[in-house]
Design a protein that fits this description.
alpha/beta, 410 residues, binds pyridoxal-5'-phosphate, four-stranded antiparallel β-sheet, globular, seven-stranded mixed β-sheet
């Protein structure tokens, strides 16, 4: 396969999982559930637990080093997003983060205000918001096209008026895979004076976006799907974060970083998260002159997307030639992330089970996108989809291994 800006061997050398004997020969196609962890992340986690596993931000050397390691993660994550460090918050997971955010917004919105939610989202970025109906908030659903699974901007326009204070939508659904036009959604949302919350969990593994360019007021992703530890990352426009009622201890109200993370920080995992930007810089270095971009994070993003688009093409071609599977979402590599959901006569989990015979690690089910599967006419509980998800570290040989396996089992 040509047109690969990233040398797979150099990329995979940065992931201990690819040298793990028990995983040899197993092609990993469940990355949307959680990626392998990059060495710079593991190194930072290991160092934290060995050398600085003490209360951070104290007066003795190990404590000061622990606090500095955490601060670095905020700084570095902000660089990756192209925003300032006061945008960044770490919480236990994206589900927990949206739960807290929705609670905070319940004290910011007023009865009679309206919010827009989608039925394309993972439940984490829709159910928590829909519960605001209890507080007298009007819930408007931006519904997908039942055939394509697409969220159209026309449908959004029909829902927006001056009553709308918040729009919650995915950058990319974990089933449809289509990359939604966030900048267009942001300009429409802002035109009516509302704030935009974007679930980037299914997008960020394919490149941390330039938030300044994207225009979302809040952007969430799960670090454990982006080569990092089990943390949820929230970027929130600082002046908006300051307006939201404090969700932490009352005496921490003056500390912006403590106001929206009531669970308390997981010190070691926050420190380890600085390894994600470290890794992305290494991706940019491996891509070298093959890609352009303003900084290493933009270059890594471009390289990862280009790599994935080259890798996905033969798989989409193969699937396009079968009339016994329904590909959810677009067949054009440019329009989608490599998170491919297939509907077939057999339940998704049964197909995944059979693919294990061929060394394929994948899964089936509803992936907590229950509302979406219902809208697409797929029984989310008894049937579901087969999901095949990969990232830039997947090789052309693994794609071929998957195609051969699908050919034998579908
Ligand atoms: C698109 C999407 N949003 C949100 C979540 C929830 O993330 P977390 O596991 O960090 O709560 C997931 C998890 O699979 C997801 O795929």
């Amino acid at each position: 396969m040509t047109n690969l800006p990233l040398d797979p061997a150099r990329i995979r050398a940065l992931f201990p999982a690819f040298a793990e004997p028990s995983l040899a020969g197993q092609a990993f196609f469940e990355n949307a559930g959680g990626s392998y962890t990059a060495s710079p992340v593991l190194d930072r986690l290991d160092h934290y637990y060995r050398a600085t596993k003490v209360q951070p931000y104290g007066v003795y050397a190990a404590s000061a080093e622990a606090g500095a390691a955490m601060d670095l993660a905020f700084e570095r994550m902000a660089q990756a997003f192209n925003v300032s460090a006061d945008w960044i918050h770490f919480g236990p997971s994206s589900s927990a983060n949206t739960y807290v955010l929705a609670h905070a917004f319940s004290g910011w919105l007023k009865p009679g205000d309206a919010i827009v939610v989608t039925n394309q989202d993972h439940e984490a970025n829709t159910g928590n918001w829909r519960r605001l109906a209890r507080h007298g908030i009007e819930i408007r659903e931006w519904a997908v096209d039942p055939v394509s699974g697409r969220l159209s901007l026309d449908a959004l326009d029909a829902l927006l008026d001056e009553k709308v204070r918040l729009v919650a939508a995915p950058h990319c659904s974990n089933i449809v895979g289509e990359i939604n036009p966030v900048a267009d959604i942001a300009s429409r949302t802002h035109a009516v004076g509302a704030v935009l919350v974007i679930d980037g969990v299914s997008y960020a593994p394919h490149g941390i976006p330039d938030l300044a360019a994207l225009g979302a007021d809040i952007y969430l992703f799960s670090a454990y799907k982006v080569y990092g530890p089990h943390q949820g990352v929230m970027a929130i426009r600082p002046d908006l974060a300051a307006q939201l009622p404090n969700q932490g201890h009352y005496f921490n109200d003056i500390k912006p970083r403590y106001r929206l993370t009531p669970a308390g920080p997981d010190h070691a995992q926050i420190a380890a998260s600085a390894g994600i930007p470290d890794y992305l810089e290494q991706v940019a270095a491996i891509a070298g002159a093959n890609v352009e971009g303003a900084d290493p994070f933009r270059r890594a993003h471009t390289a990862m997307r280009a790599q994935e688009m080259a890798l996905i093409a033969p798989l989409l071609d193969y699937l396009g030639n079968r009339n016994d599977v329904r590909l959810i979402g677009p067949a054009d590599p440019k329009l989608r992330a490599p998170t491919i959901a297939l509907h077939h006569a057999e339940p998704g989990i049964e197909l995944a089970r059979r693919l294990t015979r061929h060394g394929i690690m994948a899964s089936g089910g509803n992936f907590y996108a229950v509302r979406l599967l219902e809208a697409l006419g797929i029984d989310p509980h008894n049937h579901g989809v087969l999901r095949l998800s990969f990232v830039h570290y997947t090789t052309p040989e693994e794609i071929q291994q998957l195609i051969t396996a699908l050919d034998a089992e579908l």
